[in-house]
Amino acid sequence: MEPPAQPKRVTIVDVARHAQVSTTAVSKVLRNAYGTSPQMRARVRQAIDDLGYRPFAAARGMRGQTYTVGVMLPDIRNPFFPEILDGITDALWETDYQVLMAPGRNGEAAEAKVTEAMIDRGMDGMILVAPVSSRSHLERVAGMVPTVVVGRHGRSAAYDTVSDDDLAGAALVVDHLADLGHRRIAHIEHDETDPRRIEEMPNAIRADGYRRAMRARGLEDEISIVSTTYTQRGGYLGAQQLLTRSPRPTAIFAGADIVAMGVLQAVSEAGLEVPDDISIAGYDNTTFAALGPISLTSVDQAGRHIGTNAAQLLIDRIGDRVRPTAQIKFSPTLVTRRTTAPPPG
Amino acid sequence: MEPPAQPKRVTIVDVARHAQVSTTAVSKVLRNAYGTSPQMRARVRQAIDDLGYRPFAAARGMRGQTYTVGVMLPDIRNPFFPEILDGITDALWETDYQVLMAPGRNGEAAEAKVTEAMIDRGMDGMILVAPVSSRSHLERVAGMVPTVVVGRHGRSAAYDTVSDDDLAGAALVVDHLADLGHRRIAHIEHDETDPRRIEEMPNAIRADGYRRAMRARGLEDEISIVSTTYTQRGGYLGAQQLLTRSPRPTAIFAGADIVAMGVLQAVSEAGLEVPDDISIAGYDNTTFAALGPISLTSVDQAGRHIGTNAAQLLIDRIGDRVRPTAQIKFSPTLVTRRTTAPPPG
DNA sequence: AATCCTATGGGTAACGTTTCCCAAAACGTG
DNA sequence: CACGTTTTGGGAAACGTTACCCATAGGATT
User: Which GO terms describe its molecular function (chains A, B) (predicted)?
Assistant: First the structure.
């Protein structure tokens, strides 16, 4: 079987000829620019339909606009991120902007590759979700392209931010567990050692919120943290470590639902019952947390809402690149389900 | 806080001036083209490093190449698709190609929007995962841009395909359940009514495979199908329907793991025990299926492998657009876990 | 009736890169 | 040493779109 040859693209010149107007006129109609009579608009629109014309983004890109916004997601497997993405695409659906995503994958180098690639491709704007890159890199990027950073705390003069109050979220979990009577509450965090990032990354702030809340409840001696990653495997390995500690924790606060999934697996393999032997709480309130057999207590941080706000900020920023940057922060809520209960004994 | 002004891009002209050569020479070095001496290459490379030059994709796009491939995924929430994506990015990591994704979302119109957008952006190639668009649309797209279609069966002269033998996969499940002694085995499918698609879509073929396998085991009178969607919610609603049927099925074969998640929830809410009261099997063997508390019997269809093969086919096709199209088909295997057991009684 | 607007439309030069050519120099062969 | 061949390098024209200008024609204002 042989593929057929490809047809040639219809250009603005073809449209202009067909409508008997100049290319300038067609361009103006396309962009709803000033200087077009209703009659001309109608004729040009007709010609566009007749010929099936579509603007070629590369050519537009050379003139400065591609009508494309790039979204960088850290980990497509984490079921929380689709929520944010839904919010973004919802907000951008009615606009002329097309959303394209790239996976950030592992670490700073891969992130840089993605941000560079997006800049090279002339993105009109970028939304970076929970980036791990250095602040200076982010500001350099934001200097080239309008950028909104999602998830990271801290304000910058170069980019807008949307985040959730992770400090409060962690406290919600600790307070809930402590109210149930737990004292040995352990936490599994996504490892973060870089001191410059430690104040900004949501994972680090959740860990800090855990420590503060434990102290506030007089449980400073019970603070117990394992550092792994926000992945299912990270949760699995982290829980295995925690379960061998003596005395064993009576509750585990996983920094993300996806981590809690791994914890559940390790706990079940260890022959322990949830929540009779051990309580487990997650973070993000993903759709999996609501699943019957899992029914995970989790912190809800309206991801969709975060996404729509990020998209709106980006559009505003594209419209006015020098307006002061904004910082939007949402407050999380706790959703209690069946994986948390009073400690045994 | 006010954002700073943005710097101007370094172009090939700047590099040429700095290296004291022509822009043609720089272009040749960039593309490893013929007609460059080692000395010139060295000088140009040095200049590129000095100036931090990066090629501008839009300008390249105007000449026909953007070094970008587009991937369309139907549903980012389905944990099977990240596997395919990993395979694709693995295969493309060492190449000059950058991967950009777009969510296909709901239905044909949204898919067309995505494929058009990718064509407009001058993608060098596209990988469409389980597209629902009409065959003629796919062939039109493939006529404009090298395209690989993943998941759909059926051969086309316009595009290459990579798929898994869904017919065999469905049979694996039915045979497994029948061997355990089940007779009332129900199936939840992703609804497909379009006759042109019914022969190509993996979901439809799984349903067909279910019917055939039931007949082959002499269970044609027990065939029972609910049509919903391949989503968690679809599984939930589908299972609710099945559980009210009388007599109730003793086993449910969900067309995808994500569907099985919803089934588990409905079953648990109905107060039934898995697998004592009812057996459940999924499809895709996602990481969630392996989770301790879930431990779902599922059909494994090496998603990563599918992805790398699709990417390789795409690269080959970009290299030679007239070579005959290829069709790669993989064979699935069954992974039995704790959600399937002999029927009660 | 002369002047000044405003609305409408078009001509044309960019934007950054590649590709098709052609020119000059270096090399190999008899 | 004269000739053909290969290697090395550059000039310049695209590619499709937008933005900055300018030209014209009516209409309104004096």
Answer: DNA-binding transcription factor activity; transcription cis-regulatory region binding
